[in-house]
Amino acid sequence: MNTSVNDLLENVPLFSGLQDEELTTMSRATVAKNFAKHAIIMREGDKTDALYLITSGKVKVVLSTGGGKEVILAMLGKSELFGEMSPLDQPPRSADVVAMEPTQLLVISKTDFINCLAHNPQMALKIMQGLIQRLRNADRQIQSLALMNIYGRVARTLLELAKPEGGRLVVGEKLSQQDLADMIGASREMVSRIFKDLSHSGYIRFEGRKIIVNEGLPGKPASAAKL
Ligand code: CMP
Fold this sequence. Notes:
4-stranded antiparallel β-sheet, alpha+beta, disordered C terminus, binds adenosine-3',5'-cyclic-monophosphate
């Protein structure tokens, strides 16, 4: 168990600077946990303080009104961390985290995490870089919500999710129209209508579950108004 956990941790960028001994100490302290699709891993307001590393699957970080409306702040996959804010600052948890598919996590206690950080400036730096990346993404999300119309938000999100594949830009991950709607503060029906418009205008094309994105798709605040 520990060797395989060691291998897993070694391949996570955050832990790549750790010595073998530290990796072993860290891996001994982790507990693996499995969550079914839709399982709630943590809730906003929980007074817990462990850190989670995704070893397989995918989760979404969500804020909700309680009345069924939600906004997705981020979707995270293999080798990514979450729940780092409470151990570094203090509880409560800042958001809900929900499994989008069957997901396996390693749970790391606050004490082990803080001890490891205290001995590893490189690890502290990587945590800061990760937090800065999340702040940059949050800034972009605020910009989209405040300054772009819904067409522009759909376009920008598709461009951000798309990855080069065989010379094309492809959104390959399983993304429901409801997920996309929850990322941009729109209704599923609106997203469906915009998909039809973008498809008729030749900006996107569907191939099974994949969305092929035309690089000319306008996804910047200034051009969003033209859409
Ligand atoms: P914590 O507040 O401990 O628990 C909820 C977690 O959701 C939080 O730590 C972060 O790991 C994650 N989280 C909160 N806000 C964001 C965001 N804007 N982008 C990515 N992850 C986030």
